[in-house]
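Task: fold both queries, return C-alpha cells.
Query 1:
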Amino acid sequence: MLPIGIPPRCLSRAQAAEYCGCETIEAFDGWVRKGIVPGPITGTHRWDRRAIDRALDRRSGLIPDAAPSIDEWLAEHAS
C-alpha cells in the first residue's frame, strides 16, 4: 500500500476512467478509441496516470501538440 497522499502511477481501467471523470468504463473506452487518452501500457492492463495527464494537457491546450514523448513513441512502435 502506498503512503497517504501518493497516488498510484499505474491505474486499472476502472481507476483510469474515474481519474478522467468518465461516468462509465464504456465512455472511457470511447476516449481511448478516439485517441483522447492513450491505451494501456504495452503488455499490461494498466494505464499510466502521467501519460493520461499529458494527453489531456495536449487536448486542453496546456502544452503544444508537439512531437510525442519518447514513451509515447516507444508505445506506438512496440507492436
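Query 1 returned. Query 2:
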Amino acid sequence: MDVNEMDLDFFKSIDSGVTLVGDANSQSSYRKGDSGLGVKELQQNLIKLGYTLPKYGADGSFGKESVEVVKAFQRVNGLLDNGVAGENTLAKITELLKAKSAPKQEDLPKVTSIGDKYSFQVKSKVVAGVYKYSNLAEKQKTISNNAIFSVYGYTEGAKAWAVPGGFVKANDVEPLLVTLTTGGLSKDMEAEFRSFLKGEKINSELNIHAKGNPSAEITIAGLQLVKVKQFLDVKGWYYK
C-alpha cells in the first residue's frame, strides 16, 4: 500500500464517522514484503501480547499472515487497520508490552513511610539511579554523585529508600549524621534512654551534660535517627 492509498483510507474513515489513527510511513515501519530482525521482533512482540502466527510463527518475514495479525491488533486498539506496522502501531505495541511487564502491586516490596517529620537526608556515593518501583525496577532518571536529598520511606531490610520521584538503592547513598540535643534529662531518664539504645543496638555515644539543666547529645543517621526521634516523641522528652 503506497502513501496515496493510506491517505485515501484515512479520509474514508472520516467520511464514515469513525475516527482512526493512521500510521506514518516512516523508516521504522514494517509492511508486507519486508524481512529481517526488525520484522522478527515485531512478530515476537505480537505473540507476547497474545496474537498468534500459527502457520509461520516469528520467522522474520512479513507475509500475509503477519498482515492479518497486524490488522487484528490495529482494530482492537483503535488504529487504522491497513496491515502496516508504522509509528503509531509500533508505539502502541511498546506501550502494551511495558504495561504487561510492570510488576503487580502485591508482588512489590512493602514500603514503610516515615513522612516529613522523620525524613532524613542522604548523600549519593555514586551516580545513583531513581527507580519507578520499590523492587528497583524501571530506572527513570539518575542523581549525580554527592547530591543531597531526603528519604521519606524504606522497604523491608532497608534495601531501597523512598525518595522524591521514586526509589534509590540504599547502598548507593550514605545517610548524613545529625546531632540531637535533649533537655531536662534526669538520671532515671538517662538510664531509660541508654537501655533503649542498647535494646535497639544503636552504638552511637550518648554524651551527658550534667551541669545546669541536665542534657544529652547523640550524633546519629538514617533509620537509627528515626528510631531515636520516635522514642523521644513517645516519651514526650524535649529535643532539637
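Both queries returned. Flag for query 2: The mean pLDDT is 87.
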